[in-house]
Design a protein that fits this description.
By secondary structure, the protein is mostly helical. Helix content is 77%, strand content 0%. The chain is built from nine helices and no strands. Helix 6 (91-119) crosses helix 9 (182-199). 32% of the residues are buried.
């Protein structure tokens, strides 16, 4: 294969590319806090990452693509953290672990999470990412509810339907709390955990 083949070039520079891509995404997250999505530009992102606009376009075709990749990186962390929920046998421990990890992620990346929610209706790629992430979390909640003795199924009092409602309740509650403080996130988590435990029939 000729050395100038694009696939070969990308493999050869993969390590440097990973570092640059991480710098672009980190810069984008910082700029969301400083300027907001609408005000920041591709030029701002490139400058903050220490590269030219042309170099940035090697990785991403637009500001929207950068933000989509940032959301993807963040929700991947959310899924990694929530996956333990489905793998923990004892429902109370699973619920506590899930809420603890959710607080950690919203505390660390709340701005990205809120941006994802805000853009999910107008940017299809972000909408799909967010919907997919919610589906994964709903699946994890469903497993916990079924382990706690809630009947499987999609009827209103069955596990899948209850899990969907719990997921979107948690999302909206954390969305608002994350704009306030870490303390508010902790309160939101305690409230959501209490409601989840009641829904699972683990407390009355």
């Amino acid at each position: 294969m000729p050395s100038h083949h694009p696939a070969h070039s990308r493999r050869a520079t993969e390590r440097k590319g990973d570092v640059r891509e991480r710098a672009i995404l980190d810069t984008c997250e910082a700029l969301l806090a400083q300027k907001g999505y609408d005000a920041m530009t591709v030029g701002d992102i490139a400058q903050g990452a220490g590269i030219t606009r042309g170099a940035l376009y090697f990785y991403f075709g637009s500001k929207q693509e950068v933000v989509t990749a940032l959301v993807a990186r963040t929700v991947e962390h959310l899924w990694e953290r929530s996956r333990a929920t489905a793998q923990t046998d004892e429902p109370r421990q699973a619920i506590a672990a899930a809420m603890r990890r959710t607080v950690e992620l919203w505390d660390e990346h709340g701005l990205v999470m809120r941006t994802a929610i805000d853009l999910s209706l107008t940017v299809p790629e972000i909408g799909e990412l967010w919907s997919h992430t919610a589906d994964l979390f709903i699946t994890a909640i469903t497993v916990v509810l079924e382990r706690a003795g809630i009947q499987a199924g999609n009827e209103p009092q069955q596990a899948s339907a209850m899990a969907r409602a719990l997921c979107w309740m948690i999302e909206r509650t954390f969305y608002h709390a994350s704009q306030e403080s870490c303390g508010e996130l902790q309160k939101a988590s305690s409230t959501c955990e209490h409601i989840w435990l009641i829904s699972a029939g683990l407390i009355t």
